[in-house]
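Entry type: protein chain
Record version: 2
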Amino acid sequence: MITRKSVGAILFREKEGTKEYFLLRRKILDRYWGFAKGTPEKEETEIQTALRESKEESGLKKIQLIEGFREEVHYYFEEDNQEYDKLVVFFLAKVFDKGDGKVSHEHEELKWLEYEKALSQITYEKDKNLLRKAEETVSKIKKSHNP
């Protein structure tokens, strides 16, 4: 079994008083909806990977990580008759760009969706759970800034 690691970020923004989450639809395999993520490059930290992959896969540049949010997702899959053990580390980040971003060569489509719509759009349950944790964290941040 081959072990692989990816790192990514759950991106959100506030647009006209509404909080939205950034989702991507992958081109390959089962064309699932999820978050920006990718493989760390040599000597790169998890945070550096999360920021680089988020920028590369979204076309967005003004991305700020939210301190204290780091979640892991672990799963197994098979590809080309080979078994893989995959760990994906996710951070939470706020986007300050004015535009919506652009679809990378790895993806077919992107969407900015409010929480409930994003939750129903996401393909895998593990990613839905990540979004739930992200929403909880963002809500706590908002409450602490607006008592």
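Comment: The CA atoms of residues 1 and 70 lie 26 Å apart.
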